[in-house]
Amino acid sequence: DLQICQHRAPTCCTRKMEESYQAAVRRERTQSIQALNFELKYMIVGHITAFQEAFESLLRFAENRTSSLFETAYRPMAKEAAEPVKELFTDISLYILGAETTVESAVLRFFDSLFPLVYSRLINPGITDLSEDYTECLRLTRQDINPFGHYSKNMVTELSKSLWASRMLSQALSLGIEVINTTEHAALTKECSRALVKMQYCPHCQGLTLIRPCVGYCLNVMRGCLASVSELDAQWREYISTLEYLTNEMAASHDLEIALSGIWNSINEAILHAQLNGPQLSATVDKVCGQPRQHEGNLSAANIVPVKEATETQTFVMAHASLNNKRREFISYMKRSRTFYASIAERLCDGDLVMRDSSTCWNGEDVV
């Protein structure tokens, strides 16, 4: 009553053994594909972690640099500016990781929060009554009177370009893991599991436990079994090309490191612009929000001290070099995996599964 290993000669197999063999080939095939996938998946997962660590390192550096700007050049508002600065960099981090937010909304929200502080601590340091209503009025007025000139828009433009490539790369790496996981658990058809039993275990039913499949026979069976997986070849090649494009974009015009390290300077320029235009801003704000109570004495433009660039560049240089090295190493490895899905049958038929150094092998019917 054998269904798969039918043979004219006497056999030691039963129907139940055939069912056990089918379960065995399904398990073995999943394990074989998992073993093939492991190195590729390990490389991608490792680089997801490495890229994220490098991003975080650069973000921390840029955040510390921005905080120190307030502490050294704008001390009257440093304590209150700490929260908006933290929120800005949290939003940037979430954006890179794929959150439903935009660089523009993060930057403009930061400048909305910054304007009441700049206005009340630097432009009109005598203000004592900074009620919630007055603060909110200042926030809303920022969008109309544009106290920070073109600097806030420029910051949006620069960051959007550089962060976009980083965000896309982060999402693309996660997609790669999903694809690999899906192929690992691709179900074998009934025809495939029968063909695998015939190839691997039917010789056992005739007592031929040491004989192995012929190479050509193995390739035919594996290609048939993995047709749906090998169809991914064209898309996988395109995926590798996209990864290459994104890593090149990150290293070229959309340089993340340069954009992040320039945030503090953009903010500094924006604040200086607002201070220099203090009298005009005050006149407009008084019309829109009314005049708050204040002490005598304002900060004139003559008191403005432009901040010099910090010399704390070592951390940045190390993170920059680390990210560049990781990019090169990663894309070099991924390019070698370009034919991964096209050659999966060949790789499964390699090694112990087939006879290579013998004059005899199993062709599905007999020893040849």
Automatic annotation (TrEMBL):
What domain of life does the UniProt record list for this protein's source?
Answer: Eukaryota
Principal location: membrane
Glycoprotein among keywords: yes
Q: Which GO terms describe its biological process?
A: cell migration; positive regulation of canonical Wnt signaling pathway; regulation of protein localization to membrane
Which subcellular locations apply to this protein?
Cell membrane
Protein function: Cell surface proteoglycan.
> Which family is it part of?
Belongs to the glypican family.
Identification of the protein by name: Glypican-5
